[in-house]
């Protein structure tokens, strides 16, 4: 960690005893010059003063007059560039919700602590602080125009990357998810968050999806010819399901590539609500009748809901990463994961865990009945040419 004497710390709590206890703890941990405040307005004056602006604020959430979340809002208005540690006697879920809100404001949160705070827990969070943990102005991501995205689609600049999906019980690679990238002639590799929204906004997502699907099917056939049989998943927007000819397009493309429908998974993602459920329901049901597999993506977030599971014959339920990462040591996340997994099992659906980020996530999944997993711990999305070599190395590096 950086030199402790270089870190300016403010402790904000309305309880004088708690201020004294935290000050003593900080001094024992090597931070003798922390300043304290028992109310939000006085603390904001310190933030406003360049000479006393803290690098790190230990913030009590439940205070009279100005509570901790209102204080955070004032920090945002002031473009505060330091970090926070949240402290409260409230329950874990309230602390988690508060941390989420602070993160949504783009303020770094080193973590949260329950009262009574222990020196060990406080020390562990202080170790996370570094100058890099402070918010720094970031250059805004370039957002492309509709004409540029249209030219990329028609000009063959979109390329597919593939993220492996593995069987949890055995570690065996069973499929891939197709993730589009834009190989821009000037800007280099452009990621989906910079152009998918533009495509949806300007009626280009259908053309984009068709290019991605055709490329994925052609690649699946190449792998098949090389002796590598994999399921291939492609994301399908609700906008794709406005056009009744989408069914025929998918069927014709799969047949032309020589890929059996059972090997094709269409992951339905909803960035916005259905305008009319009849056409999407017809398209998805007809695709299911043709034996293409259907997956409900990011289940439990956005517009994905129980109503879709009731109405659409999905084969697969993808448990959103927010219910997977950290589930092993977070009872709330674990409960959400368990509920999603149980629902999938009761409906005879395959369960796929997204967002497996580390060994702890993988170890947790291995204790469950989850069928399949994907995430950075297993592999990042990669070009098609890299996949066979990665498959050769995966069992020795990841499956444990």
Structure description:
The chain is an alpha/beta fold. It has 2 domains: 4-133, Response regulator (Rossmann fold); 146-397, EAL domain (TIM Barrel). 38% of the residues lie in helices and 20% in strands. The protein contains 14 helices and 15 strands. The protein has helices at 16-28, 40-48, 68-77, 92-104, 119-126, 146-154, 196-201, 205-225, 246-257, 278-289, 306-311, 331-346, 359-365, 387-397, and strands at residues 9-12, 35-37, 56-60, 83-88, 109-114, 158-167, 173-184, 188-190, 231-237, 264-269, 293-299, 316-319, 350-353, 372-373, 382-383. The strands form 2 sheets. An 8-stranded mixed beta barrel has the order 6-7-9-10-11-12-13-14. The longest helix has 21 residues, at 205-225. The two termini are 32 Å apart. The relative contact order is 0.08.
Task: State the fourth-level CATH superfamily of the largest domain.
Answer: EAL domain
- Which fold does the CATH topology of the largest domain refer to? TIM Barrel
The profile of the biggest β sheet is:
8 strands, mixed, barrel
Number of domains: 2
Average the pLDDT over all residues and give the rounded result.
90
| Backbone CA Rg | 25 Å
- The CATH class of the largest domain turns out to be Alpha Beta
Number of helices: 14
CATH architecture of the largest domain: Alpha-Beta Barrel
Low-confidence stretches: 133-138
Principal-axis shape:
elongated
Helicity level, as a percent range?
Answer: 25-40%
């Amino acid at each position: 960690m950086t030199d402790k004497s270089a870190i300016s710390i403010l402790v904000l709590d309305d309880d004088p005893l708690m201020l004294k206890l935290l000050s003593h703890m900080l001094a024992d941990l090597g931070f003798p010059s922390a300043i304290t405040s028992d109310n939000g307005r006085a603390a904001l004056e310190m933030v406003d003063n360049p000479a006393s602006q803290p690098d790190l604020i230990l913030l009590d959430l439940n205070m009279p007059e100005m509570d901790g979340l209102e204080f955070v809002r004032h920090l945002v208005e002031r473009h505060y560039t330091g970090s926070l540690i949240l402290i409260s006697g409230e329950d874990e879920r309230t602390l988690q919700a508060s941390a989420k809100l602070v993160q949504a404001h783009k303020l770094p949160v080193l973590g949260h602590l329950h009262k009574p705070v222990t020196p060990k827990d406080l020390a562990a969070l202080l170790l996370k602080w570094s100058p890099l943990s402070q918010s720094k102005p970031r250059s805004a991501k370039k957002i492309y125009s509709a004409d540029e995205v249209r030219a990329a689609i028609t000009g063959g600049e979109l390329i597919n990357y593939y993220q492996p999906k593995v069987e949890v019980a055995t570690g065996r690679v069973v499929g891939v998810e197709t993730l589009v990238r834009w190989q821009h002639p000037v800007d280099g590799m452009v990621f989906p968050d910079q152009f998918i929204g533009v495509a949806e906004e300007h009626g280009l997502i259908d053309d984009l999806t068709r290019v991605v699907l055709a490329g994925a099917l052609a690649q699946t056939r190449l792998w098949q010819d090389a002796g590598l049989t994999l399921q291939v998943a492609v994301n399908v927007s609700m906008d794709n399901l406005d056009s009744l000819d989408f069914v025929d397009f998918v069927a014709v493309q799969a047949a032309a590539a020589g890929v059996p429908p059972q090997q094709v998974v269409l992951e339905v993602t909803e960035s916005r609500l259905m305008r009319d459920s009849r056409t999407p329901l017809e398209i998805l049901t007809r695709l299911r009748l043709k034996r293409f597999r259907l997956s409900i993506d990011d289940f439990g977030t956005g517009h994905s809901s129980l109503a879709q599971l009731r109405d659409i014959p999905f084969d697969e339920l993808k448990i959103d990463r927010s219910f997977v990462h950290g589930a092993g040591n977070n009872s709330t996340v674990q409960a959400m994961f368990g509920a999603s997994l149980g629902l999938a099992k009761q409906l005879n659906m395959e369960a796929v865990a997204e967002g497996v980020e580390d060994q702890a996530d993988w170890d947790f999944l291995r204790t469950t009945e989850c069928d399949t997993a994907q995430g950075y711990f297993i592999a990042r999305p990669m070009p098609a040419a890299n996949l066979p070599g990665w498959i050769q190395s995966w069992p020795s590096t990841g499956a444990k």
